[in-house]
Amino acid sequence: MAQAAVTVKEHVFLWEGRDRKGARVKGESRGASESLIKTQLRKQGINPIRIRKKLQLFGSKKKVTAGDIAVFSRQMSTMMSAGVPLVQSLELIGRGNQNPAMAEMVMGIKTNIEGGNSFSESLSRYPLHFDDLFVNLVDAGERSGALETLLDKIAVYKEKTEAIKKKVKKAMTYPTAVLAVAFIVTGILLYFVVPQFEDLFKGFGADLPAFTVMVIAMSRFMQDNWWIVFGVLGGGIFAFVYFYKRSAPMRRFMDRALLKVPVVGDILYKSAVARFARTLSTMFAAGVPLVEALDSVARAAGNIVFLEAIMHMKEQVSTGQQLQLTMQQSGLFPPMATQMVAIGEESGALDEMCAKVAEFYEAEVDNMVDSLSSLLEPMIMAILGVLVGGLVVAMYLPIFQLGQVV
């Protein structure tokens, strides 16, 4: 297995020099230090005259995203399948990448390989972007001489997992955004619009309806204590995110609760099952032992409820139990997935059966997310009607009463 190493900080250097014919040349290269750039240039037959670090403007450097890694996986798979050597593939990808941070990392991997390290060892120097699963699969491909095949499996895995993550994010973002807009509109009405009606009502000389009085009281509270409202709201969101990331009991409670939310819970549940099956299929197809594969599958689960269940399954499998029995005992996996895994274990085609399970549940998630907007439309109308429509009715009730008196 490839061992994780310390991440090497790469920089972009601008250089000037002369080639073997004495002609003046210049360019830019990526490396960990100026001395390393000098060594690289001399290997290329260039005598360096001047080397300086390229200044990066604040905020100009993009981050390396999971999508960038998925694209990188597909590019490497395509190039190596076409017979392009490893170092040349990295050179082409690095030079042609539009994301400076990604290009810098790819060129750093290339430099590490040229320094005598294996591809998997070079990837392990960037643990934030290449997890153990990625590194272990590349290592297995290098050891077996089937790197091109393993890179294709990695590319498929990354593309599928990123696609399902985007679907889940879309499902979670839509209702959250609608609720946020509804509360913002309500706040604006309470702070700016209701006070105008309050001034109008002062000249009526009559008692206001209880509903109107309540809304005016809310408006006054918003005007006098808006900083408390926003402070509590912002502090609550910050505290929730902070403790969710750092507290296992909090994560366990929230992940379990989210799985029970109508519609959204089904999407999260089926996406977790799809991720489990897809990761297990990829690891098992690469020849990784089942116990070791389950360790990587658990870390890729994306839900602490599934993570804990899979780690318990790993302990049971290590004692000799069949995987499908441990899945049944966990009570977390659907019968269809458990049955397919049982068939895969009996036929010796566990990777193929898990891939079919993954494809089925990925399609289920796609269909559910696509229909989510139509399911949420009545809910959205109801929320907006209660919040905004309620305020409008409260403001017009005194006017209606005044019309009846006249």
From TrEMBL:
Record protein name field: Type IV pilus assembly protein PilC
Entry keyword Membrane: yes
Ranges that cross the membrane: 174-194, 226-244, 380-400
Membrane-protein topology: Multi-pass membrane protein
Keywords per UniProt: Cell inner membrane, Cell membrane, Membrane, Transmembrane, Transmembrane helix, Transport
GO biological process annotation, one example: protein secretion by the type II secretion system
One GO cellular component term noted in the UniProt record for this chain: plasma membrane
